Amino acid sequence: MKAERLTMIRQMLDQNPDDPFLKYAAALEYKKAGNISECIGLMQKLMIDHEDYLPVYFQYGKLLEEKGNIEEAIHIYKKGCDLAEKQNEMKTLRELKEALVLLED
Q1: What residues have CB less than 8 Å from 76, skipping those under 6 apart?
Q2: Does this model's pTM top 0.90?
Q3: Collapsed DSSP state (helix, strand, coil) of residue 78
Q4: Residue 58, pLDDT above cutoff 70
Q5: How far apart are CA 65 and CA 5, in angstroms?
Q6: For 12-61, what is the HEC assignment?
Q7: What is the pLDDT of residue 2?
Q8: Which residues, in sequence order, are CB contacts of 17 under 8 Å at separation 6+?
Q9: Do 61 and 99 form a contact (C-beta atoms < 8 A)?
Q10: Domain ranges of the chain
């Protein structure tokens, strides 16, 4: 089932290569499948190509945290906080700040 979902997402991405949601969905599917390097690559590309796509900041920060890259995770969370404030996304801002607090203590 997971492989089918990833295949379907990849096909949609082939038709809409600039869709940030599809890139994000593919990254999460790669993560679920255990292909962390592909997931990280997609998330990094997403942050470059669509730096205003807010959902990626929390997930990418968590992934970095899990990999032990705490300083980089903090940087991503802070960048996400700035973006969430700019976009007036208070729920996401709270989630990012909570993740920061847990790391900075």
Answers
A1: 57, 60, 61, 64
A2: no
A3: helix
A4: yes
A5: 26
A6: HHHHCCCCHHHHHHHHHHHHHCCCHHHHHHHHHHHHHHCCCCCHHHHHHH
A7: 62
A8: none
A9: yes
A10: 1-53, 54-105
